Predict the structure.
Amino acid sequence: MKVAEKPLKEILTSLLITMGAADKEARLVADVLVQADMRGIHTHGCSFFPLIAERKAAAMINIPTRTQRIVDDEAVTLIDGNNGLGQVAAAEAMEVCISKAEKFGVAVTLVRNTNHIGFLAYYALMAVKKGMIGVCMTNAAPSMAPWGGAEPLFGTNPLSIAASVSDRSPIVLDMSSSVAARGKIRRAARLNEKIPQGWALDSKGNPTTDPAEALKGTVLPIAGPKGYGLALFIDLICGLLSGSKYGRDLLSFHQPIGPTGVGAMLMAIDISRFMPRERFEILACEYAEAIIRSKKAMGVSRIYLPGEIEAENEKISGTQGIDLDAQIIEKINQICKEKGLSVHLEELRS
Amino acid sequence: MKVAEKPLKEILTSLLITMGAADKEARLVADVLVQADMRGIHTHGCSFFPLIAERKAAAMINIPTRTQRIVDDEAVTLIDGNNGLGQVAAAEAMEVCISKAEKFGVAVTLVRNTNHIGFLAYYALMAVKKGMIGVCMTNAAPSMAPWGGAEPLFGTNPLSIAASVSDRSPIVLDMSSSVAARGKIRRAARLNEKIPQGWALDSKGNPTTDPAEALKGTVLPIAGPKGYGLALFIDLICGLLSGSKYGRDLLSFHQPIGPTGVGAMLMAIDISRFMPRERFEILACEYAEAIIRSKKAMGVSRIYLPGEIEAENEKISGTQGIDLDAQIIEKINQICKEKGLSVHLEELRS
């Protein structure tokens, strides 16, 4: 089903305000959730909204989010997210990075004790708007084993990096350190489908194509020891160094059994310290065009830049409406009723 | 064949001095090359020494290396490597990062117009010795296509990150953004062996297990679009932003047809801004032990930390000698003769 961007954002904003969120906070969180769905990243979109509502009802998340600066030291900052909304802590952290990178050329901000921050490219792209290269990483609840292991110790710890390009959407990479998201395995289990070889191991550490066995086991890191190493370092920085939870101790946002303890790292590098921003953007555009025009493999009709598919999805969603599962729309409308809001989401008719 | 560490380093140092290197410079380059072989990373070891000699003879590398600071601005620095030895520029860049991170908490240094810097963990580990998290990236001559492409546009652009752990060797990731090194494909071609599916594409962009076809084609990025994205961003930062070569323009160090135009990025984050270094190292050690002791997959006898195998190799090489191809030893001895040095490498007898 398709819904329009504006009413969706307005309803989520209103609902977040009824949950205690400040106005700016509510608009930000709605924006992050809706933009994920608009970009086609439905695993990180409005399906998280009912989880926020459930967590708030269980008094396991603090709304409004009251962050605290623990370290504010030259180019480095540490923000305690106070178990509030992850989007608020992460966006504040990137704002701090941008303003400090203006002063020092580069800045790193760590966030601790927060919750799921949504899709990472959102924050990396905040830096891009200010002429900077943006980086964002976060840890997550354990679902992946070390290489050679059979026990979940790391999340699918993702990493995003973005840069601006003249006359085009920014180039933005947003990738997890696992081959496939657990959400895709859950979906295969629901649909009674097999999963591809190479996605997951069963609880004994054997390869499996059975989603039920995979859900009892672990997801596989990209490129074996490489993805394991990436996930570990993301956890060492976002979790351990920030003073947040790490390894086995993180809890999933999907079950309200306690604070998730998520940590994040944000970084901005000021392009203008190295070359004029316009020159970088023109050269990056020429590079992007060279990639797009380069020789294609047999059967391939188009080469995409990182983030290009998502940017196109976003445009299409803006004009033709946002694809949302009927189930999600129903849940949001149900929460509207519970909160006594006289509005509800309507399907977009073309 | 095995050779001892001390005479190998001394001979390479003496040879580099005859090529015009300053004393400190010669010792550094010898150290980086020999340490790679000691750690078992033979693709980045003394096999590069004859290439340096050849490049120097062709007057295509500037020795001694005279770097220049182009930008020296708060926490960011840009160093021009002046087409000298890559090891010298990269080590200087990491020294600058360490001293600036002491002041600002984090620092980034870009290097342009340099040559192959050797194995990246060397520089990341320099930061670790000073209580910091070290990061190093570099671009390389094109051998990898964008995802969906069939034309080499990116190198196997590698990334290293390292952190210290109490009572253990540092944890250090050193990975390329390609599935396999081109060197491994060259070796299979020499031995008339097939290469595994998933390593490379032929010149039309079709999967191949024939190393000869693969060498005419491209190596595959790790995890498809993810490795492509990583390689592209490493190139955008190390190559384009630094003002170095990028994309198609880089030349290989293996053929002396012109300056390679390699760029690099080095970064250090001062742990002590976030928590006492000792506490980080103790917690990281506990985390490392938890990983090692975690449940193993069927048939796996041991779980390794990133860099653990290399650290063990280094210890063994130090006591039992360094494995070097007879061919490399012969070439080094031949260069000794040409340079009129009265020493030569001898095989270590046990």
